[in-house]
């Protein structure tokens, strides 16, 4: 298990979600992704993306002007 950090500050929707998607695709099941965003919409958009794709949101909070989201990558099904 490894922990990766993604700086998505100064990016507006949908770019934080796209960056999360691209980063998660490079990670293994059990890895943790710590995301920092400045777009307040990411507080809802990234967890929604995780629900759709089966990843686990361990924490999601707003600290001042930043949104911090901690994601556990879950095993992904291979494409059919």
Describe this structure in words.
The protein has about 80 residues and is α+β, with helices and mostly antiparallel strands. The protein has one domain: TusA-like domain (Translation Initiation Factor IF3). The protein has two helices and four strands. It has helices at about 15-25, 40-55; strands at about 5-10, 30-35, 55-65, 65-70. A four-stranded mixed beta sheet has the order 1-2-4-3, with helices on one face. Strand 3 (about 55-65) and strand 4 (about 65-70) form a beta hairpin. Helix 1 packs parallel to helix 2. It is globular, with a radius of gyration of 12 Å.
Helix and strand content put the structural class at alpha+beta
Mean pLDDT: 94
Strand content: 25-35%
Question: What letter string, H or E per element, gives the SSE order?
Answer: EHEHEE
Radius of gyration: 12 Å
């Amino acid at each position: 298990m490894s922990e990766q950090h993604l700086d998505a500050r100064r990016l507006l929707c949908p770019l934080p979600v796209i960056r999360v998607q691209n980063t998660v695709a490079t990670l293994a099941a059990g890895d943790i992704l710590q995301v920092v965003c400045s777009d307040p919409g990411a507080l809802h958009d990234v967890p929604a993306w995780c629900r759709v794709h089966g990843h686990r949101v361990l924490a999601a909070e707003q600290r001042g002007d930043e949104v911090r989201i901690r994601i556990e990558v879950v095993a992904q099904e291979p494409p059919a």
